[in-house]
Structures are given as structure tokens and as C-alpha cells.
Amino acid sequence: MAKSCFLQLIAQVQEVSLDGLETYVPLLSMSQNLAKLAQRIDFNQSSDSDEDGPERESREPWGKPEPEEDEGTVKFQPSLWPWDSVRNNLRSALTEMCVLHDVLSVLKDKKYMALDPVSQDPALTKTPQVFQLISKKKSLATAAQLLLKGAEKLTKSLAENQEQRRQRDFNSELLRLRSQWKLRKVGHKILGDLSYRSAGSLFPHHGTFEVIKNTDIDLDKKVPDDYCPLNVQIPSDLEGSAYIKVSIQKQSADIGDLGTVSLFRRQPKAKPGSQMWHLKLEAAQNVLLCKEIFAQLSREAVQIKSQIPHIVVKNQIISQPFPGLQLSISLCHSTGEKKSQRASPDKSKPDDHLYVLEHNLHQLIREVHTMPHPASSPFGHKRLRLAGPMAYDKAEISSLQQSEGLLEKIIKQAKHIFLRSRTARTIDSLASRIEDPQIQAHWSNINSVYESSVKVLITSQGYEQICKSIQLQLNIGVEQIRVVHRDGRVITLSHQEQELQDFLLSQMSQHQVHAVQQLAKVMGWHVLSFSNHVGLGPIESIGNASAITVASPSGEHAISVRNGPESGCKVLVQFPRNQAKELPKSDAVQDARWTHLRGPYREVHCGRMEGRNFVYKMELLMAALSPCP
Amino acid sequence: MEAPPVTVMPVTGGTINMMEYLLQGSVLDQSLESLLHRLRGLCDNMEPESFADHELVYLLKGQQGNPFMLRARRSLLHPTAPWHLRYLGQPEVGDKSRHALVRNCVDVAASHSLPDFLNEMGFRMDHEFVAKGQVFRKGAMKVVVSKLLRVLASGNTENTEPLSLSYLVELSVLAPAGQDTVSEDMRSFAEQLKPLVHLEKIDPKRLM
Fold it and tell me: Which positions make up the signal peptide (chain B) (predicted)?
């Protein structure tokens, strides 16, 4: 009220005349003002407003169910006291309040009046359930909204992460590259080193690759799976892939081609995590390794003096370890994507000695440096530093300095491989050709690169326990075969296969005679004479013939066996004189008892005898000639 | 018997005409680990090798002013290894732009009778010290990180005390005379060690 009066004090301009004079609206007097304000009160607006006050604000309903009786506007009667309606309303309100107060005070005593809850009308309760449902639905909807929003945020961030990981920015890729390869920064460029120099190689190739950013990516299109923001540029002469092919060929019926093997020809299996740059760099490094090995080999091929000079033609080294045997080492470098047309028949058979060759090559390229002690001494070979203090002479120094070249080692290995396979072939062919006696070869599992050994046993079937005198240990070296006999003899055979074959044949023939000797012991026969190398009879071209004569226990019969590698076996049986058909009569020998002595010989046709081998035949013969008592 | 006349000129001619290119620097003890890590990454061969050497410096005083100096060094970790006798000439005063100290160097391996031999020849031991540390190599370059220890009682290498709280770092190459590309390689290698250790050419004359 005071506020509105205050507002009224500021006169309002009604009109401004042309000469600038302002005419003000005449201010209302106090009573006029009050009448105007009282006129504004509308008691029907709020359901029961007992307050006075011109302001109409929304009020909480009082809960009195009685509606106002006087609906409609209150007719304004200017002659009436302006507060009359107000006073009437207040009076009625007071009355009602007093009634309520009385009822409540009577209720408080609980003696005369009590309150009972009114039974809920089921029609009324229906609507609250609907309200409940609606309110529950609303609250669930808000909760779900919140959760969905959160889930959306999470999926968005996850997708972003994956996108980032796929995109793989340049720096993180560079970090990965740096963890596996040597990098350095030169000016603006990032260079790397893929040579083997840090492992000790002295190959003059620089082996530098450059790391470049891969900017040819179209961001609008979908990022391909193998996209990499980093690319490496390898030197042009290291592109593609290379391997070293080693092949040993012999145009001969007995061995034929010993085969071809490719070294350092790993097909790089793309591991799921490995990058394209890694494969590229590994392939380039392999090419460098093959080039270095080949360069060293060709350098040695030219320098080494050997009986048959080595031929170096472009990317192939041809040498002849043995006459008739050709070893060729070639560097196969294929650039670009085109695969070689010729099918590779060599599926790298598990030849252990060729893996050893590859391992040797790796080792030879990477020399291991030794540090000098004391630290101030210059780098150099440790042994050579002792040359001064220990006063080595020229021979010792040259022996220290002499180290076998790579090519020499390869040739030695090739020779050994060849010799070994040829020995095996010889033994196998003999074993298949000759059934009696049998030849067995036990190869040892543990061999070295330059030496293998095999134990050869010559036996007769069924008589292994008795006749085991021929046991040979063959040590196959690089150029020679050393044979150690059971009886202690050591024989050195050259690489000629004929020598080995002849030797084995002679041993087989000796075995037969030895077998008869052992058999005689078992059967009770007496050995009258035995000779490994008889000087009588036809001359053998291979070795010597051996002979044995055994006599029966009773002495009546004797068996002579002569066996030679070429001439075969000859068996003669000596009978007592009285069994001979023609008995030469002699005057000197009169007594009848001399007829029991052994006399003439008769030859036995071994071929027509029963028995699967010679020793068996001999046993039968001996058994036939010694009658049962 | 008077000492034989000694020439000050370095030994030239023949096949021993090697020059030593040298760069030196030092690191404090605390920074040693980071330097070793860096060197392991930069140099060849993963495993660095530790050494412990005992060096004796012999002087031969002639009538002329400058005595002749020889350095004899033996390894304490490998007692059977031969001794190493070294002569280092005066630094070559070439152009100032050369990055490394160049001096003539003669290295000889000697048997274990070296100290007696030198004594008989007239040399007298001037001082001795023990150096312990690690050796790295990169191609022809040798990096030696060593701690110098003073020998308290002459001849007794067990009782030693460090001379300083730092390690001496030396980068050296032995090359025939006339190869100046060596100093370029050394300088670029020294650049890679730059914040950890500053390798520079230190003229020994200026220190005296």
C-alpha cells in the first residue's frame, strides 16, 4: 500500500502543449486512492481469501470444500463504505474458524466426538494406482535416460580410442620402429641402419634406410586395415629378396645329383602384429647378408690357390672338390614382386649338415671381437699380442694368422657330404648284391661337420655268434676313409669308391674262411693250417685268397677251403686211402694200417650242396664226414 | 756410467708410424650410469667389458731438458696377459681446426720382466696409478671410461684411493698418419654424447 502511494506521488504527464507546458494528471486524494484500490479486490479469484491485499498471487487452496457463494463480480456501489465487502467476508471467515476451533476442541476430549476414517471408495482408489504407474514410469524413464546417456558416452569414447589405435599416429609407430631398429636423426631426415656392422661385419655397404611419413591417406575413405603412417625407404640394391643356392652335381650313375639347397630363404611369415616396414627391413637385411657372404666367397675363390681353380661367373661360384663333382654356389636375388617361374623342387629337405652350413656362415660373418687387456692396448687378435713377449717364430705366427676362409670350409663340407653318401651307396649296393655273407652297416648318429663314422659287420646268417671276426670301423673324413679293423690294423682308403668296394669284397672272402675256422672249433674239428693270404693258386686281382684246412676228430677226413674275392670258394675233401677208388699199389707201403691215412682229394660242388649259405654247407659237410659213434 | 743420450724425436719409419687421435672428457660419479647406458646403445657388442689396469710411468732423464717418458701398463684382471708399453709423442701442431688431439703412438707388447728391464735401461718410475672402468668400441673407435685411483704404497695395488669424484672418458682411434677423416668421425660420435659428457681435445702442455 505504501508502495503504490509512493508511485502515485510522481505526477504523470497528461499532455504536453505546443508551448512546452506540461499538464499533469491531477493526483488523487487519499480517499479517492483508497476507493480505487478497494475496487480492485476481487474475492472470487482465490477460493477463500481472507487476507486483504490488493496483490493477487496464487495461493494454496485451503481445502474448504464449500465454494464461495457469491460468484460473479461484486457489484461496485460507490455509495457504500468501500471496506464493507471485506468486512463481511472476514466476519464469515471468523465464524467458520470459530466453529472449526470448537469442533477440534470437542474432538480433543474424545468424550463426545470421535473421528473415524472414511472408507475409501474403490472408484477413488483406481486413479491413485494409475498415478502410481505413471509416476513409476516417469521415474524409470528418467533413470533409463541417464543410463543411456552414460552408455552413449562410453561407446563414443571407445570408438574414438579404436579409431585412434587404428590410425596409429606417426610418433607411436616411430617409437615401435625404434625399439627394433637403430635410428638416428640427421638434419631433417630420420635415417636407420640395417647393416650388420654392429655385429662385427666389415662389409662396405652403408645399409642406411630412410623413414618417411606416409601421407597418401584419404581420410574420407575408410582407413584400410594395414595402413601404416610410417614408411621405410630401403636402398635400391637391397630391394626384393635374395637367397644363396648351393648345389652339388655329379654326372655319374652311382650317385647322381646330390641335390640343391637354398640357404637363407625364409619366407617371412607375416605375424599378426608385425608391420610392413618390419618385413621390408628384414628382407633387405637378408639381401645384405647374402650379398656379403657371396662377396666373401667370391673373394676367397679368386684368392685361394687350389688344384682345380674355382670359377667365378657373375653371381655364381663353381668349384670342383673332387674330379667329376661340381659344387656351385649362386646368389639368387629376385627384385620386385614377380615370382620365379621355375618351380622350386628343393623343399629344403631336413639335411642337417646344410643347416650346419648355414649356421657356420652366420657365425663366420659375425666375428666376435675381444677387448684388449690392458685397456690401453690397440685392438687386435689376442694371441697375436703374445707373439712379441713369447718370441714366436715365423711358423707359429703364420699358423696363428692362418684362418680358413669361408669357401674352403664350404668345400670341405661338400667333400665330406659327398664322400659319406658315396660310401653309403657302396655299402648298400654290396649288401643288396651279395647275400652270403651278409654285410651290415651301423651309422653313428653323432657326426661332426667333417667326420662321420660307420661300423660295418660281415656275418653269415645264422652264425652271427660264431663268426664275428670281421668288424670294421670306418671313419669318413673329408678326403679319406680310415678303416680300423678288429684285429687292430688301420687302413687308409682314398676317396675312390672302387677301393672301398674291393676292400669290402676281400674282407668278405676272408670272412668265409674265418667262419670255417670258428666252425671247426665248435664242431670239434682240428685246424691243420690257416692262411689269410695264400701265395698259391690263381692270382686274385682284388686282395688275396685265404685258405684253411681242417681235419675231422677221427682224423680220417680233412676239408680244405680256399676262398678268394674273385675266384670264389673251392672246397676239397680228403678221404682215407682205403676209400679211394684206385689205390696205387706201392711196394714201400705194405702194412694195412697205412690205408687209414688220408690220401686223395675230391672236390665238392658247393653250388649243388644244400644250405642257404656257405657256412651252413660247411657244417653239413663236416657233420656228414664225422660218423656217429 | 752415464745415461745414454736420448733423442726427443719420436720414432718414425718402418711400420710403426701410427697416430693416436684422442678426445677426452669427464663425468661426475652420479652421471656415470646414464653415460654407460648411452654408450651401450651407441657402441658395438652388447656386453661392455670391465677392466682394471695398473699403469707405471717411467722417465729417463737425459742431459737435455725434457725427460723421455714411457708408460707401462698391465691388467690386474688378467695377470697372465702381456704388459703393454706405450710411447706417446708430442701432439702434432697441425691446423687448429682439427678436432682431435693427434700424436704419434708406439705400442709394444712386453713380457712380465718389463719393469726390471726398464730399470736396467736407466728408466726410473715416476708415478703409478690404477685405472678401473669399462671399455667400449665402435668400429675402430675405442671409448674408455675409467676411474683413476692413487696407489698409496708403491707396488701395492690393493690399497688405492680415488683421485677425484669423477670418471675420465677417452675416445681414441689408432690410425696411420695422414687420415683426417678419422677426426671427423670422432667429432660426430662425440656430438652424440654431447649433453652427458663434453669430449674435447685437451692439450697436455697447457695443463702443466
Answer: none
